[in-house]
What we know:
single chain, about 240 residues, alpha+beta, Structural Genomics Hypothetical 15.5 Kd Protein In mrcA-pckA Intergenic Region, Chain A, Alpha-Beta Plaits, 3 domains, 4-stranded antiparallel sheet, about 30% strand
Amino acid sequence: MERLQKVIANSGFTSRRKAEELIKEGKVKVNGKIIKELGTKVSYEDSIIIDGVLLKKEENKEYYLLNKPRGVICSVSDDKNRKTVVDLIETDTRIYPIGRLDYDTTGLILLTNDGELTNILSHPNNNVEKTYIAKIEGILSKENIDALKKGIIIDGRKCKPVRFKVRKKDLEKNTSMVEITIVEGRNHIVKKLFHELKHEVIKLKRESYAFLTLDNLKSGEYRILSIKEVKKLYSLK
């Protein structure tokens, strides 16, 4: 017997956090009965229906690293029929992205059907590092750099980069290339950081996620993670 949200996550249907939301919203039935209590113990043999969809038994886990192109949605589906990151992966398995990148943000994103790993990598206590390259308007001042070192309040909470450096300054075009590493998972957080400093982000690319990098993957290309890499990601818990 396992907790209901864990069984849902292990099946690859969605992450544990999302499973908990679905349970609280009354969208999960076990053997015909709506379950709203988190932690309810169930068997893998029980009939579990989520939003009218019968949960399949546990599937083999799949793990992908994608170099997301600009103009692709970080979602399983899109009501405007825009291309999603899932559309770029050749698999019949129901996979989903871990976290998200904005529509116009490019770079490294992971996709899987492993709810347990998704929960580990998404949990704020695990401090998973993400490194971005941002092309921004203007040249950062000493005051800007000092503010980043101290941390900046975004939507009522401080965000302090793990590290950052200015890679390039273009005085003629009045732009800068900045490398910034954060452990934050909030939406638009990098753009909001620079917005607070009055430097809008022109382009944004995620170059690394934990120890994983894009290597030589071209935009739109992906690869399967090795067993060693998956175990190393699990060790971040």
